[in-house]
Design a protein that fits this description.
By secondary structure, this protein is α/β, with parallel strands linked by helices. It has five domains: 6-113 and 313-410, P-loop containing nucleotide triphosphate hydrolases (Rossmann fold, 3-Layer(aba) Sandwich); 117-183 and 203-309, no CATH class; 452-521 and 697-727 and 784-824, P-loop containing nucleotide triphosphate hydrolases (Rossmann fold, 3-Layer(aba) Sandwich), CATH 3.40.50.300; 526-684, PCRA, domain 4 (Orthogonal Bundle), CATH 1.10.486.10; 883-906 and 917-1101, Alpha-Beta Complex (Lambda Exonuclease, Chain A). It is built from 44 helices and 28 strands. Helix 5 (92-102) packs across helix 14 (314-326), helix 21 (530-543) packs across helix 22 and helix 37 runs antiparallel to helix 38.
């Protein structure tokens, strides 16, 4: 072993005061910790149990203990080696657990309490949330909260805020309303920093903001009328959404301007946004209080459930230990003194990833001048867990503590290290923190290649991002293959590191395509695999057989494999004339459905047999036993084994059984709880990789997240997807140690979410934190490489590019410094090689070439047989035809349009028209407008007497996603409709039924449709009303109405046969003309409708088989 460097030796031997070692990547910090531990023992300064050593992970603790044990043995320190077994070396959680077990009475915890793993804690939390929502749902306040945010949002936010509050080290009692009043004190806040609680107009800071706002308004030239309107609104104190709308309307009075007027206008708009956020604050207060009440109940109920189960989670370990050691009672003081006396030296690894509560705990266990912390602010990447890098930076600057920088890097070759130093000096310039450049301790070696590849995929404006991502993944896979084939590297020397594991499957797919062995280390995707979802759906169905969608999914899956036709007939039987019955009942009584073919009947019989048997035993079977039964009876595991990547799918099913058994070993688990547990993990994208079919130690490329790679090193590091932009959090509730609770609240006028002042301030701080952490994550990623670095990403079109992001930072650096990298542009797939291997690389061809033997070529087929393949395929005649009612109108109006819109039996003989995106978008918008108009009228005619009071609100809400001009037209059309003669008749009607769906059978198939409105007027007559938003001139009204006669005849027939209602009139309402066109049918005519439409059906079937004497 090489001797310590002078700086390492100084860190190891420094005594008499606390030490802060700033250890850069690859500088041997673990060795420094081990050597310091041994040095303290060798010098007789402490025994092993008198040294507290805290590591970040269990793996690091195990490695540290093993290395200390080896060194003690090598130095013949046998007694110290024996005492090492009782030393306090471990994670902060393991140390806390030990302290609580040593003082159970003083801590008030069960000495036999079980420590919950993270997934167990999640399962318990979900159970608590389930009960909490059921208990509180009936309350008016909670109901309004759930209506505004959805249950999913509230569940996620409750857990998130509870964890944040714990990490801050704030007492859980602050979940009370006091938490609303937290605000940052001090003069460093801007003059616009407002308290979380709305102040009166006399509040000096509120008055100051309004004064600044008015001053900026007055500085805007011209627009005197607009300024007067704005000033009147700004002087109002009116906590209402109408007032918020009025404030936001001021923005439209002063649009963004260019030239000399830009500065006052821009500043005014910025201050106006702050004022609006402040005005939103009191409107959010009821939701804040309700949410905090739920949070307090959640924390309390969760604590009670853990106590019932004699269990503690990781947060409990920290919290209870701090409570034990930090109290002012004689007991707490005695316990604290005991440990501060026992631990003569405290060593802390990875201090940059410490949370405030953990920092408090370390302080309670430490004495004076005996702390030795090791860390690196540049590698602090766990802010999402509540860690705070400022704690390390403060320790570095703390009086009485000596800072020792470790900068000698033993990992990376000098050429690579020099590039990394230059890049991060460029990236962190002007940010104020000390950047200690790493110094190479490795010799240069013989490799002279450029150490950094920059692989860039340019995205075309018309390309979907998923397709470009596939192209980039393919390029990465080819580069990996080249490095392993042409360079000194094996696959096992290469690691692909991801910032997020969301799209790892793209890269897995391309690696498999090139037959590159790989191993995913704690990746994601396991719970999203189709085989896992299939089996979990069966478990969900066993828990509740009357769930239609899961049952349909199981029946259609490879577990049962019924046809689409079978699903249709089962669904029809369950929702037929007799009313809605569960699909399960139809499936169990499938023999009564005559339309099912023999093959589907056999499959349903087999399903009914094993499923009903499983239902009988579900209370007796464990979850793992249910899984075993399902696989045994369906042989689903053997089925997936026969497919591509079958070994992986098979292993995934085995892994699911192992997960079930692990959960059961901890405690009995109900089937429903297990299903909710797995679905929760799937929703949260928990880092559970697919089952591996390659050994981690084998010759395989490693795929893992950057966070998982921390502390590791690889010869080649590939960093893909560098162009990905952070999406940002979508949390509606945010907590901050100094600012309290901030939230977004739904505007009752626009239905859009508005930020409160507190939420905006918290969000700004979190954004600043995340941007800084993003740079540190990139630093950790790049410094994992020993020999070579491959940087890969997608560049979006210039108009879409943003200034931030990893790839942009790299490009800016390369362009500004002209720093040499091996730039590889990927313009198309040929640039990175075709997916198919060259012939010489295939094993069979290579064997013939190496043997010098001729390559056998199969003889060609007979030309006649070959040409026969290109003969036209004769289409089969259809015995039945199921169509919507509108199809009959199209058929009678234009046979050509019918063939194009409702193709049956094969492709049309017409030439395929080239797709026009502008035309398609216009059609889509028109359809969207029509749907929105129909939906609005459905709402208005349901309660016509109140329509005049709420129509404006309804239109604004419904038209949010439409372009501005369409929204304005929607307002005009609805307002016109409400003043029309038609609406007056609807308002006076005896009965009204909007959106009446129907399905009825004719001789050759089903007809389906929806009647816009069916109502009974004051005379007792039944009227059908159909809305039309098409553009039509008054002169063409009669011709246009004739196109829809057939459709209205079908509606009349449906009402006659299904509802037994005599229809007096069928009316078309043309909204853009605000006029109607009526059709009346006498009873004899209605009696002939069925035969007429059955004749049309037969004609349709004939048309789809023969056209101009030719088969289609």
């Amino acid at each position: 072993m090489e001797p310590l460097t002078p700086t390492q030796k100084k860190a190891v031997e420094q005594l008499g005061h606390s030490v802060c070692v700033s250890a850069g990547a690859g500088t041997g910090k673990t060795r420094v910790l081990v050597e310091r531990f041994i040095h303290l023992i060798e010098k007789g300064l402490a025994r092993p149990e008198e040294i507290l050593a805290i590591t970040f992970t269990e793996k690091a603790a195990k490695e540290m203990k093993e290395r200390i044990a080896r060194e003690l043995k090598a130095r013949s320190l046998a007694e110290a080696r024996r005492q090492l077994e009782n030393a306090y070396i471990g994670t902060i959680h393991s140390v806390c657990a030990r302290i609580l077990r040593e003082h159970p009475c003083e801590a008030g915890v069960d000495p036999s309490a079980r420590i919950l793993k993270e997934d167990e804690a999640n399962l318990l939390q979900e159970t608590v949330l389930e009960r909490l929502m059921e208990d509180r749902f009936s309350g008016a306040e909670v109901f309004e909260l759930l209506k505004a945010y959805t249950e999913k949002d509230i569940r996620r936010s409750l857990k998130s805020v509870a964890n944040q509050v714990h990490a801050f080290g704030i007492s859980e009692s602050l979940f009370s309303s006091d938490f609303l009043s937290i605000q940052k004190s001090g003069t460093e806040e801007s003059t616009t920093a407002e308290p979380t609680v709305r102040s009166s107009s006399a509040d000096p800071r509120r008055r100051l903001l309004r004064g600044n706002l008015i001053a900026k308004l007055d500085a805007i030239p011209d627009k005197e009328d607009s300024r007067e309107k704005a000033r009147a609104v700004l002087h109002r104190d009116e906590p209402s959404w109408a007032h918020i709308e009025a404030l936001q309307a001021i923005h439209r009075l002063f649009p963004r301007m260019r030239g000399k007027t830009q500065e006052p206008s821009t500043e005014f708009r910025k201050l106006l946004d702050e004022w609006i956020a402040l005005e939103v604050e009191p409107l959010a207060r009821p939701f804040q209080k309700t949410f905090l009440g739920l949070a307090q109940a959640f924390v309390s109920d969760y604590r009670h459930l853990k106590r019932e189960k004699a269990a503690l989670d990781f947060n409990d370990l920290e919290r209870e230990t701090v409570r034990l050691l930090g109290g002012e009672t004689p007991t707490s003081q005695a316990v604290r003194k005991r440990y501060q006396t026992q631990f003569k030296f405290v060593l802390v690894d990875e201090f940059q990833d410490t949370a405030p509560l953990q920092n408090e705990l370390i302080g309670l266990l430490s004495g004076k001048d005996n702390v030795f912390i090791v860390g690196d602010w540049k590698q602090s990447i766990y802010g999402f867990r509540g860690t705070d890098v400022s704690l390390f930076l403060e320790r570095e600057r703390e009086a009485g503590i000596e800072r020792i920088p470790l900068v000698e890097n033993f990992r990376s070759r000098p050429e690579l290290l020099a590039w990394i130093n230059r890049f991060f000096k460029f990236l962190w310039r002007g940010e104020g923190e000390r950047f200690d450049a790493l110094q190479p301790k490795r010799p240069s070696g013989s490799r002279k290649q450029v150490p950094v590849d920059l692989l860039v995929v340019e995205q075309d404006k018309t390309e979907a991002i998923s397709l470009v991502r596939m192209k980039e993944a393919r390029a990465v896979a080819h580069r990996v293959k080249q490095l392993a084939r042409d360079g000194p590297f094996d696959y096992k020397d290469i690691a692909i590191l991801f910032r997020a594991a969301t799209d790892v499957y793209f890269y897995e797919h391309e690696l498999r395509a090139l037959h590159i062995p790989y191993y995913v280390v704690s990746g994601r995707g396991f719970y999203h695999q189709s085989e896992i979802r299939d089996v979990i759906t069966v478990l969900e169905l066993i828990e509740n057989p009357h769930l239609d969608i899961p049952l349909a999914a199981v029946l259609r899956s490879p577990l049962v494999q019924v046809s689409d036709d079978a699903l249709f007939w089962l669904s029809r039987a369950s929702k037929g004339v007799g009313g809605h019955i569960p699909l399960f009942r139809a499936a169990m009584n499938f023999a009564e459905i005559k339309e099912l073919n023999t093959d589907d009947q056999k499959k349903l019989e087999k399903f009914r047999t094993w499923f009903t048997e499983l239902l009988k035993h579900k209370e007796r079977f464990s979850v793992s036993a249910c899984l075993d039964y399902i696989l045994a009876r369906t042989q689903y595991d053997l089925y997936v084994l026969g497919h591509p990547e079958g070994k992986r799918h098979f292993a995934n099913l085995r892994k699911l059984r192992e997960i079930a058994r692990e959960v059961e070993e901890r405690e009995p688990v109900h089937l429903g709880d297990f299903v909710r547990y797995v679905k929760g993990l799937e929703t949260k994208e928990v880092r559970e990789s697919e089952a591996q079919v390659e050994a981690e130690e084998g010759n395989a490329v490693k795929l893992m997240t950057i966070h998982k790679a921390k502390g590791l090193e690889f010869d080649v590091v590939v960093l893909p997807d560098l162009g990905r932009q952070d999406r940002g959090g979508g949390d509606h509730f945010l907590a901050h140690r100094d600012l309290g609770l901030g939230l977004r609240v739904r505007n009752e006028e626009t239905r859009e979410f508005e930020d409160t002042s507190t939420y905006k301030r918290i969000k700004e701080k979190l954004t600043e934190r995340d941007e800084a952490e993003s740079k540190r994550v990139l630093y950790v990623a790049m410094t994992r490489a020993r020999e070579h670095l491959v940087l890969s990403g997608i560049r979006t079109p210039r108009a879409q590019r943003k200034k931030t992001g990893w790839l942009n930072s790299i490009f800016n650096f390369v362009e500004e410094t002209s720093d040499g990298v091996n730039r590889i542009a990927v313009e198309d797939e040929r640039a990175v090689g075709d997916r198919c291997l060259p012939l010489i690389e295939t094993e069979e061809i290579r064997a013939f070439v190496q043997a010098g033997a001729p390559i056998p070529v199969p003889e060609g087929e007979d030309l006649k047989l070959l040409l026969k393949r290109f003969e036209p395929v004769t289409a089969s005649a259809f015995p039945r035809i199921d169509l919507p009612a509108t199809a009959f109108s199209v058929f009678e109006y234009s046979r050509k349009d019918f063939e194009r819109v409702y193709p049956l039996g094969g492709a049309s003989s017409e030439k395929i028209e080239e797709w026009n995106p502008e035309e398609d978008d216009a059609q889509t918008r028109a359809a969207e407008f029509g749907t929105t108009f129909h939906n609005l009228l459905e709402l208005l005619v349901l309660q016509p007497k109140t329509a005049q009071n709420r129509w404006l609100h309804d239109v604004k809400r419904a038209g949010l996603d439409l372009p501005r001009e369409m929204r304005e037209e929607l307002l005009r059309l609805v307002e016109t409709f409400l003043g029309s003669r038609v609406f007056s008749e609807i308002k006076a009607a005896k009965r009204r039924y909007p959106e009446v769906p129907f399905v009825f059978r004719l001789h050759s198939g089903l007809v389906q449709g929806t009647i816009d409105l069916l109502y009974q007027n004051q005379k007792g007559e039944w009227i059908i009303l159909d809305y039309k938003t098409s553009r039509v001139e008054s002169a063409d009204l009669k011709q246009e109405a004739a196109r829809y006669r057939t459709q209205l005849e079908l509606y009349t027939l449906a009402a006659h046969e299904l509802l037994r209602l005599p229809i007096a009139r069928a009316t078309l309402y043309f909204a853009r003309l605000n006029t109607t066109f009526d059709f009346t049918f006498d009873p004899k005519e209605v009696g002939n409708f069925r035969s007429r439409f059955e004749s049309l059906q037969r004609e349709m079937l004939g048309e789809t088989v023969v056209s101009e004497g030719k088969r289609l």
